Every structure is written in C-alpha cells, then in structure tokens.
C-alpha cells in the first residue's frame, strides 16, 4: 500500500484510516502545532490512533475506556525529523478526554 502524506497543516491531519485503506479500527496521522502551549483535543471515534511526533515535545493526557487516566510529559525531543529516532504516541480505541499540549523546539 502506498499513500502519499498530505501537506503539513496546523492541527491533526489523517494520513491513513478506514477511508483510504483496509484499516478498519486504526488511524495514523500527524499533529502540527504552530506555537508553544498550543492545545489539541481529539476524538478517536472508536479507532486506535498512532501519532508521530515529528519534532518538538508534547504532553498528553488520556482517559482510557476503562476509566484509567494516564498522563505523559515531555514526549519527543527531536529538533527536526532527521535529528534522532522518532517518538510515537498510541491512543487506544474508546479513549476519551484526550488532550495534547505542544512545546515546539
């Protein structure tokens, strides 16, 4: 399968999901913030979601379907997409109260 990634734009951009692939319960995309402390809340609509942190750092807070609240701070550390290994965020299906705060480098 070959899917060309859309151009970067502010917010979450879906790269692959059930609309353009055989994936039925998963979506992948990227999240772009233009300013420090920008926030983004997302609705996973019953899908698992993988987010690649291309550069900068993010804080994420998620409440899973079974009610467990989990928070991670300072995920990602690259200055750009080529300056180190990538960092991915996995958000389980059925999660709610998803909030991501960015700290661009």
Task: Please name the defining characteristics of this protein.
mainly beta; 105 residues; globular; 4-stranded antiparallel β-sheet; 4-stranded mixed β-sheet
Summarize the structure.
This protein has 105 residues and is mainly beta. It has one domain (11-103). Helices cover 0% and strands 48% of the residues.
What is the typical, i.e. mean, pLDDT?
77
Helix content: under 10%
Give the low-pLDDT segments: none
Alpha carbon gap, first and last residue: 33 Å
Approximate strand percentage: over 45%
Biggest sheet layout? 4 strands, mixed
Rounded Rg: 14 Å
Please provide the ordered H/E string of secondary-structure elements. Answer: EEEEEEEE
**Strand element count:** 8
Give the overall form: globular
Structural class: mainly beta
Strand adjacency order, main sheet: 1-2-4-7
* DSSP summary: helix tally: 0
Count of separate structural domains: 1
Structure description:
- The chain is mainly beta and 105 residues long.
- It has one domain.
- The chain is built from no helices and eight strands.
- It has a four-stranded mixed sheet with strand order 1-2-4-7, with no helix packed on it. The chain has a four-stranded antiparallel sheet with strand order 3-8-5-6, with no helix packed on it.
- The mean pLDDT is 77.
């Amino acid at each position: 399968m070959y899917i060309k990634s859309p151009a970067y734009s502010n917010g979450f951009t879906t790269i692959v999901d059930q609309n353009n692939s055989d994936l039925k319960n998963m979506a992948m995309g990227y999240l772009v913030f233009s300013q420090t402390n920008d926030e983004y809340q997302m609705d996973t609509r019953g899908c698992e979601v993988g987010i690649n942190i291309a550069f900068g750092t993010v804080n994420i807070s998620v409440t899973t379907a079974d009610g467990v609240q989990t928070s991670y701070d300072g995920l990602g550390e690259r200055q750009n997409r080529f300056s180190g290994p990538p960092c991915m965020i996995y958000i389980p299906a059925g999660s709610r109260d998803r909030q991501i705060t960015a700290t661009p480098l």
